[in-house]
Amino acid sequence: MKLLIVFSASLLMLVACGEGAAPVEPTVVEAFMADPEAVDRGEALFVGTCSGYCHSMTAEDTDALFLFDCEWKHGGSDQDIFNTVTTGVPNTRMVGFGSNFPQGDDDLWKIIAYLRTNQQSCS
Predict the structure, then answer these.
(1) What is the CATH classification number for the domain harbouring 65?
(2) Is residue 12 part of a domain?
(3) 0.85 exceeded by the pTM?
(4) pLDDT (tens digit, 9 = 90+) per residue, 31-45?
């Protein structure tokens, strides 16, 4: 699965950089998605932090959202997810983490890359 994503991201970048097209830089999440070590770190952080306390690895009926589907209650862009995790959600148990990951913001981007890499197909 991870190899397919890396291949797809590489192919997309090659097509985008075709003749006459300006080079397209990958986003930070796309770059981390293409790096298996970054995705593995994102998974370890998610398991140890997010799913260790609130978010399930499988779809279950709980008060914490399932993060591997296509339903993002607080915005589904990478930046929206980053902002939600950083600042939290008022009146919920989703606290803001700020930049309190061991490697700061990079770790949060790696968690988002892990989520994107393992996200269910969105149709």
Answers:
(1) 1.10.760.10
(2) no
(3) no
(4) 999 999 999 999 999
